[in-house]
Amino acid sequence: MGSTLSYLKLNFQEIKLSKSIMINILASIFFVYLKFVFYTNKWKLHNTNVPEKFWNNKKPFIWVHWHGQSLMLPNHWNYNKQNLFALVSRHGDGNFIASLLLKYKIHLIRGAGNPKKLGIKEKGGAMALRSMIKTLKSGSSVALTADQPPGPGKICGMGVISLAKMSGAAIIPVAAKTSNRYEFNNWDNFTLNFPFGKGSIVWGNPIEISSNASPNEMEEKRLLLEGQLKSISRESRNNIDNLK
Q: How many angstroms separate the CA atoms of 177 and 156, rounded?
């Protein structure tokens, strides 16, 4: 019996290792593809003075975007001026995303988002929240999505607002589009970007939340962030779709 259990344990570890290797290989291939897409598109950048001011002043912020719309965004971060940490789920496709982000030299915080609790209900969620606050206070920025699976999409959760309130860091929304793309018909309209076209990156304006903000004030900021994300998403789409 003991030898059987040892065999099963060893076999499970081998399967887990093989899966990890396969994820890393697929992430490497996808990383090369995304770099190819980035370099073969002609980009228009809007409001870049917003992040540049924070980077130059060594001031961290919370980088927020819609779920499923982020494949081109890592290429537009200035890694020489500031480190970036990303909140990544422990479940689903989280391991693949984690492996992909590491290739951009983005640091990871594991413990995925919940629309209201930033993953506090998930295993490791409370620790992830503490890690994000500590990261921001230490001078590095944090990236996460405003909406969280399983949806609904394009509805900003209160989690990012709470993080800004507790950390004292500003929220800066961002949106990206390419003229050549495929948008899936799922909850977040996941977008796969294609090469040989035009691209647009639009940064929104900083949103700050007071440490003593009331629930009503936090809801106002949530609506403000949601409105900004929708607005800059339309702007990024219009910037390149009108040029077709």
A: 19
